[in-house]
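Entry 14. Ran structure prediction on the chain below.
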Amino acid sequence: MRATQVFLLGWITVLAASMAAAAPAYDKLDRGPRVGQPLPVKLVAPDQDGKIRDLASLTGKRGLLLVFNRSVDWCVYCRAQAVDWNRRLGEVRALGYEVAVISYDSLSAIKNFSEGRGIKYTLLSDKGSKIIRAFGLLNEDHPPGTFGHGIPHPIVFAIDPKGVIRHRFSEASYRRRPDIDVVLKVLRSTKGNGS
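Output, C-alpha cells:
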C-alpha cells in the first residue's frame, strides 16, 4: 500500500511539473480557452462606430489579436494598454494580424475613448459580458450591482483566421499586461509555421 502511495505521489508530481512546463512563461492566467482550441463562442459585437463585427471582418491575413480589457472608460492600466497597442499597430499589421480590444464598456464609452485617443484599430463593446462569460474570463471579484460587474480578467489571444487559438498572453495581476515586445517576438517566431 505504501509503495502504491509513493508511486502515485511521484506520478502526480511529474504530471503537475509537465503541465506547468507546458504553459509558456508569458501565459500566467489559468482561465479561458487553451492553445489549439476553437473560439468558445461566435465572436460578434458592435465596434466603436456601432457597426456589428465578426471574426471575418476583424481578422488580418494571419489572424487577430483579441485583447480582453477591463475598461477603457475607467481602468488606467487598460487605457494605457489600449494606447500602447495603437502605437505598435503598424508592427502588428506588418505581421499579418489585426488588433481588437474587447471590454464590457458601452458603445458611447468606447467611441469617446477611440476618438479622444485617435485609436486606429477596433474596439468592441461586450455590454452584458456575453462573450467574456463564454470565454470563461468573468472576474468574479465584482458581484452583481457593483460598477465592475462584468469585467474580464485581462488576456490577449492570438487567433487564426479559422477561429483557432494559437497563442495566449497573460499576467497574474490586472496591474500588469502582456509585454507587446513579447507578443510580437512570439508572432515573428511562428510566422512560417501556420500560426
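The two ends are 48 Å apart (CA to CA). Will compare against last week's run tomorrow.
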